[in-house]
């Protein structure tokens, strides 16, 4: 769960010029993948940046941090729900789209979270999971920093998580969001791509 200090760090990052570039690329990717979906769930929405940026999409944000959701509600009038990724407070088939951005790898039980996403999605509902790529220069530089949020990662192999997601979704994966020296690049190079993205539709 994010602390008040974590939230302040995220706000500083995303309000920096570099952070804005990163967020813009991620939002553009999500928009391309989820555009046209009627009801979308953001699991681990944090302070609601994607809800704010993707204003044309009908997104419900969920997070386990009350403080993060308070910040999210200040940013946008979208719906936000306090809850646990491993026990989503929604009925079966409530959504036709869902996404997570650097969330699954920080959960103790990411499999339960994936199960829950599958449960609340309609048949053929789409799921997009953005996960940190530990092979990237960006990750390797951050993990060395004392106090880095990256050090809290519980699952460092996105390919392992992709295998589990593939049990419930017709999933494919790709490297995305090249980062080098505060510059954002268009590349699928596993050494430069900060993220590994798994996307697919509910089986």
TrEMBL record:
SUPFAM superfamilies: S-adenosyl-L-methionine-dependent methyltransferases (SSF53335). It comes from the Archaea. This is Methyltransferase type 11 domain-containing protein. InterPro entries: Methyltransf_11 (IPR013216), SAM-dependent_MTases_sf (IPR029063). The lineage of its organism: Archaea, Methanobacteriati, Candidatus Hadarchaeota, Candidatus Hadarchaeia, Candidatus Hadarchaeales. Transmembrane segments: none annotated. Pfam families: Methyltransf_11. Residues 41-128 form the Methyltransferase type domain. It comes from Hadarchaeum yellowstonense. One of its GO terms (molecular function) is S-adenosylmethionine-dependent methyltransferase activity.
């Amino acid at each position: 769960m994010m602390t008040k200090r974590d939230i302040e760090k995220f706000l500083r990052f995303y309000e920096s010029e570099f952070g804005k570039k990163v967020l813009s690329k991620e939002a553009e990717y999500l928009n391309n993948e989820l555009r046209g979906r009627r009801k979308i769930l953001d699991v681990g929405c944090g302070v609601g940046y994607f809800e704010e940026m993707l204003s044309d999409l009908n997104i419900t944000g969920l997070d386990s941090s009350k403080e993060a959701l308070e910040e999210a509600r200040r940013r946008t009038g979208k719906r936000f729900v306090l809850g646990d990724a491993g026990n989503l407070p929604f009925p079966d088939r409530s959504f036709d789209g869902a996404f997570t951005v650097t969330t699954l790898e920080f959960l103790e039980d990411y499999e339960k979270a994936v199960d829950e996403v599958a449960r609340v999605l309609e048949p053929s509902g789409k799921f997009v999971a953005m996960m940190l790529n530990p092979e990237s220069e960006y990750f390797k530089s951050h993990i060395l920093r004392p106090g880095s949020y990256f050090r809290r990662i519980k699952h460092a192999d996105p390919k392992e998580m992709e295998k589990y997601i593939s049990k419930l979704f017709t999933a494919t994966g790709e490297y995305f969001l090249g980062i080098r020296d505060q510059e954002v690049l268009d590349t699928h190079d596993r050494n430069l791509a900060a993220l590994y993205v798994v996307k697919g539709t509910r089986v």
